[in-house]
């Protein structure tokens, strides 16, 4: 029911972007449509302070909703910056589909915490922004020394296949002090990768030297969308604008 209301509101507002909130009032979730008060509502959306107050007093705000009538089904750079300010999941209407994006931490500049914010988390969050949800699993410190092969167990059964030449969005597995693949990076093109090493901030690095020499394998998601890496770039652009 709530999905039908959201889709109907988006269709009614097109070609302008629709906007609204999903509210939990204690008796269930409800959609609260809002007016887009942006100066250029076909290009972006803005919700009035009155509508924010109305949503917050109606119950718990579960998600912010808006549409991309003629755009891609991913959050834009501006969307990602806005999502961080609201600290909410954002639901995006594109065509007749609703895409749900959690408020994942910025891909760049993350503090490392094994099993919480590490190279696997970075991979999962980057792919989530591209509309692909990969499973999570608990992992011990130095699991690769305990007979486990977690990356190979993850990628093959979840729609990835091996390739020889990297394209943006591909996953590069690397051996760090081990014969097993125990580190993952996302290829960004132009010999750069996005990754998160132990005790370091997540960052872009040049894919050469050590990283290249200790590459284990390269994997591509079989149903990788053409706009997938655009979603990752939008997040990194939003991160960079906030960091400097």
UniProtKB/TrEMBL annotation:
Keywords attached to this entry: Hydrolase, Metal-binding, Metalloprotease, Protease, Thiol protease, Zinc
GO biological process: proteolysis
One Pfam family here: Prok-JAB
SMART domains, A to Z: JAB_MPN
Gene Ontology terms for molecular function: cysteine-type peptidase activity; metalloexopeptidase activity; zinc ion binding
Leader sequence residues: none
Domain spans labelled NlpC/P60: 86-222
Stored PROSITE patterns: NLPC_P60
InterPro entries (UniProt xref): JAB_dom_prok (IPR028090), JAMM/MPN+_dom (IPR000555), NLP_P60_dom (IPR000064), Papain-like_cys_pep_sf (IPR038765), VirAsm_ModProt (IPR051929)
Similarity comment: Belongs to the peptidase C40 family.
Name of the featured protein: Phage tail protein
């Amino acid at each position: 029911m709530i999905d039908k209301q959201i889709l109907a509101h988006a269709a009614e507002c097109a070609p302008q972007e629709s906007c609204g909130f999903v509210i939990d009032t204690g008796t269930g979730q409800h959609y609260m449509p809002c007016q887009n008060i942006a100066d250029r509502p076909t290009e972006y959306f803005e919700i009035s302070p009155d509508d924010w107050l109305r949503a917050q007093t109606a119950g718990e705000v579960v998600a912010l909703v808006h549409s991309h009538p003629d755009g891609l089904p991913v959050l834009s750079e501006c969307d990602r910056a806005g999502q961080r300010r609201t600290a909410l999941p954002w639901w995006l209407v594109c065509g007749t589909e609703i895409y749900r994006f959690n408020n994942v931490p910025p891909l760049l500049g993350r503090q490392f915490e094994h099993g919480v914010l590490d190279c696997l988390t970075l991979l999962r969050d980057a792919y989530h922004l591209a509309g692909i949800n990969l499973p999570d699993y608990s992992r011990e410190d130095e699991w690769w020394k305990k007979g486990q092969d977690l990356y190979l167990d993850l990628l093959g059964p979840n729609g990835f296949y091996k390739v020889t030449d990297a394209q943006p969005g591909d996953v590069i597995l690397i051996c760090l002090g081990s014969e097993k693949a125990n580190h993952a990076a996302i290829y960004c093109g132009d010999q750069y990768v996005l990754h998160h090493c132990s005790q370091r901030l997540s960052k872009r690095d040049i894919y050469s030297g050590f990283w290249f020499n200790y590459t284990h394998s390269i994997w591509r998601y079989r149903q990788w969308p053409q706009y997938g890496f655009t979603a990752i770039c939008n997040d990194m652009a939003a991160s960079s604008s906030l960091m400097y």
